[in-house]
Structures are given as C-alpha cells and as structure tokens.
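[Q] Does anyone have a clean structure-token version of this?
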Amino acid sequence: MKDRVFTSLNRQRLLWAAVCGLLAVAAVLLFVAWRGSLAVPPERPLLVRRAVLDALGWPLPVVLTLELALAFGFGASVGLAVPPMEGTGMAVAVRTAAHLLCSSTLFAGVCWMCGLPPANWQGLLLLLGIYWLIYLMVWLLRYLSWRAELNAIREGLGLAPRSAGGGLFQLHPLRTHLLLAAAVELGLPLLLKPLDPPDVPVLTGLFYPFLLLPFFCLAAGWSAGRRFGAALLLPAACGVLTLPCVFLIYNDTALFQAGAAFVFALAGNLLGALVRKIRRRGCDEA
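[A] Here you go.
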C-alpha cells in the first residue's frame, strides 16, 4: 500500500501540491497586508483582517492559523488537480465534482478571510462564479493537453505517425482552441453584461478585461504551444476576436484588450512551444 501511494508520479504530485499550497499562503498574507494598508482608518499591520477578528472573536494566533490552513488547503487542492481523463467517464465526473466542491469551499473560506466578498451572499456567488469560469477554462485546456500527451505516447510507441507542427500559421490543428477563444471572447462579455450592476460595471469593466481575458489567453496559448508548437495564428485570433465586443459593450478606450489578448496568448504559446521542443529533444536523445 505504501509503495502504491508513494510512487514517483504521486511524489511529484504531492510535492507540486505542497509548493502550490505555500505559494497560496504567501499570496494570501501579502494580499491581507496590502488590503489592511488601504483601510480607512488605517489598520495596525496585522496578517489578519481586523473585521475577521471582530467577527470571529477568537485570539489572533487561532485566526491566523485558520487563515494559513485555508490558504494552504486551497493551493494544495489546485496543485492536486490531475488530467481530467484518468479513469472511466464516471470516475472522471465524480472526481471532478468532488474536487470542484472541495476547492470551491476552500476558495470561499479564503475569500472571506481576506475580506473579499461584500456582506451578502450575492457577492460570494459572484466570486464563486468567476472561480468556476476559470475552473472550466482550465479543465477544457487540460483536456486538450491530455490529448496531446496521449498522442505523444502513441507516437513514441510507433502506434501513430510522428506529427510535426503545422507551421507558424497552422489553422486546422488549432480549430478547437479557436472555437474556445471565440466562445470566451465573443460570448462571455455578452453574458456578463446583464449581470453587471447598473452603476459600476465590475464584471465587464474589471474582472473580464483584467483577469479572465489575460488568464484565458495565456492558458490557451500555453496549451496550443505544448501541443502544436509555435502557432502565431492563435495570438492573432485572440486579439481580433476581442474587437466585436469592444465596440458592442465598451468604446475605443477598451481597444487595449486586443493588445493584451495578443501579448498574453503569444507569451503562453512561445513558452509552451519551448517546453515542447525541450521535451522532444530529450525523447530523441533517450
């Protein structure tokens, strides 16, 4: 039993989960300290929100321990996410649902400890909805990466012909990534617009252009680079696909979204292509 649990692959996953947990702890502590410095009146330099201390009524060490435990647990849950197609379809569905429930609970706890959601359930649902959108994006892109790894194994065993990149402007291999980009960049802003408060467009004015769009373009570029190598058509498409919603929802001051989408997708694609090249070189030498 011990040998099965501590296999080389499982040790790597546990190590990655621990690293992600520690990074989440550092990020939460930095965020809480930064948020406390912006409070009016300014709070004492604590690593726990004063409002959280007052609400719980617990000693500072206990609340700090809870905050660190929630942050580490959330980071570790993200690090333990595995390729989505390991096992049967039912096993994948059950594992994904359990992981989403666990990570969402920890995420909600971290948000509350950081003082992020407003004092109502709508604010918490808003944050959870954004997290679920990111989760869905990552799940789909992980699925594409898993398919790429499976194809690489088949090629290495001689069960499939060795595929080469389709060039810098390949189109057919990128069809799934392009359809996903079109759904996110053309459909998501239109879905978020009716949910925005009438006075402050938080979703379309803040979360989408500065969080969801850069994250998706970076992840999509990375996924395409790992699978197909350098493919400049994807960054170009990510930039162009932002333009319809810029003029439908925003105005010309939002044209920066096209540049941001192109840059983040290009950076992710080049990094993914570099990792793909290094891995293939290692396989050839072996």
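[Q] Thanks! Anything notable?
[A] The CA atoms of residues 225 and 278 lie 12 Å apart.
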